[in-house]
Design a protein that fits this description.
single chain, mainly alpha, about 450 residues
């Protein structure tokens, strides 16, 4: 593993290293940029789960607020650890997409209490992976983690495109106004990143989103009606919905924790890749432990499992801002949003095309990071190209054409119908069973 030290000299693309502390005049906007990058997913995923299991409007709002609060606390812990819990890296945490389908199934079959019971009881799986990372490290080489990072980006592309068109179910879906606004945000972000320097380059996505927010006003795409009706304070209530322990639910969530640990390994690798080095053992172990501990914490406080957010890894790479101080500021804002629903209402009024335009850039960067992890740590020989091809095709295939699995039992569909699970497990298994004695380049092998 590489050294924990980093500096501006470690990569010409780094504006602020991991230990750098920009002035608050710059750090706060950069922290808000991280907040904007992850806010949609952090709010949308609990909304999807709540809607699918039939929660009331009041319960849904409360769970969304708790999701923001837990994400903020978990982000701060990752940046500034509590003992062994945390990576000391700029890792933004939020509700994990990997758990959405399993939790919907559990909620519909057993109820909300069983969801939180499974989330809490199964969380030590990821803690154990963190503690014994040296022993399981060989199962997660750069080839596997790079594939998982690529799959995260690839499986998020439909979300970016849907929101660029106005969001699923929008009456103006695909309108010129929506697509034009998304294109404006996308172009501003790319142009500022490529042709500007310093803070303007580092804040490219934030500037693009602010311009998009303002441009949405004359287009009639900005709706602030929800702000007036939102309350000012919402306090956390532990175990508001109780807990129940169903063995099948616990097993399903435990398997999801194994998969999300692969995503976290990839995200940690992608984060340090932005400053030109590999993660240290302590960073990897602390990050995984924090994922598990903070997910259990989420279950206690009526939120769903947390994991590192890959779009923010893309933001670190895209902007060159790797400061954990900046990310901790984003965590503080998330905590504030968790206590003040009215502030959250203002942020959540962000038009979908604005977030979609920014997401196209960020999700694309995640794919690029995965490619870079693979290219740095794995030879592109016949064996490894076979693993990459099989994993990506199966992962993307089941994600975009899920009906091919409709004859399988519903419990199995939940697992193998996830692109991350299907592709990640394929990479993990093939890497473990295929012989490693063929190290010849792919071209020499006739590929």
């Amino acid at each position: 593993m590489g050294s924990a030290n980093d500096s501006h000299g470690s990569s010409r693309l780094v504006e602020y290293g991991i230990e750098d502390k920009p002035d608050l005049s710059r750090a706060v906007p950069l922290g808000i940029q991280h907040l904007l990058a992850m806010f949609l997913s952090t709010v949308a995923l609990p909304l999807v789960i709540a809607g699918a299991i039939g929660l009331s409007g009041a319960d849904t709002r409360f769970i969304v607020q708790m999701a923001l609060l837990v994400a903020g606390v978990a982000t701060i812990v990752q940046a500034y650890p509590l003992g062994p819990v945390g990576a000391r890296l700029p890792i933004v945490m939020g509700t994990s997409a990997i758990f959405v389908s399993p939790l919907i199934s559990i909620g519909n079959q057993f109820g909300l209490a069983a969801i939180f019971g499974a989330v809490i009881v199964a969380a030590p799986i990821e803690v154990l992976i963190g503690y014994f990372f040296d022993d399981v490290r060989r199962l997660f080489p750069p080839l596997v983690t790079g594939i998982v990072v690529m799959l995260v980006g690839l499986t998020l592309i439909p979300i970016a495109m849907q929101y660029s068109a106005g969001g699923p179910g929008a009456p103006t879906y695909g309108s010129y106004a929506n697509l034009g606004l998304a294109a404006l945000v996308f172009l501003i972000a790319v142009v500022m990143n490529q042709f500007f320097s310093g803070f303007l380059r580092a804040g490219a996505v934030l500037v693009a989103v602010v311009v998009g927010y303002l441009a949405a006003i004359p287009l009639g795409l900005l709706d602030l009606s929800g702000v007036a009706s939102a309350g000012w304070i919402s306090l956390p209530i532990p175990l508001q919905y109780g807990v129940a322990f169903e063995p099948s639910a616990i097993l399903l969530v435990a398997f999801a924790y194994i998969i999300t640990s692969m995503e976290t390994i990839g995200d940690i690798s992608g984060t340090t890749e932005a400053v030109g080095r590999d993660p240290t053992d302590d960073e990897m172990t602390g990050g995984l432990i924090a994922d598990g501990v903070m997910s259990a914490f989420a279950g206690v406080f009526n939120a769903f499992p947390n994991t590192s957010f890959s779009q923010n890894v893309g933001l670190v790479s895209f902007t060159g801002v790797a400061s954990r101080f900046v990310v901790a500021i984003a965590g503080v804002f998330l905590v504030v949003l968790g206590f003040v629903p009215k502030v959250a209402a203002v942020v959540s009024a962000m038009p979908a095309p604005v977030l979609g335009g920014a997401a196209i850039v960020l999700f694309g960067m995640i794919i690029s990071i995965g490619l870079r992890i693979i290219s740095r740590g794995a030879a592109l020989n016949r064996r490894n190209l076979t693993i990459i091809a099989a994993s990506l095709v199966l992962g993307v295939g089941v994600e975009v054409q899920g009906d091919v699995l409709q004859q399988l039992p519903s419990e199995v569909q939940i697992l193998v119908g996830s692109g991350l699970i299907a592709g990640g497990v394929t990479a993990l298994v093939l890497n473990a069973v295929l012989p490693k004695d063929d190290e010849s380049p792919a071209m020499d092998a006739g590929v």
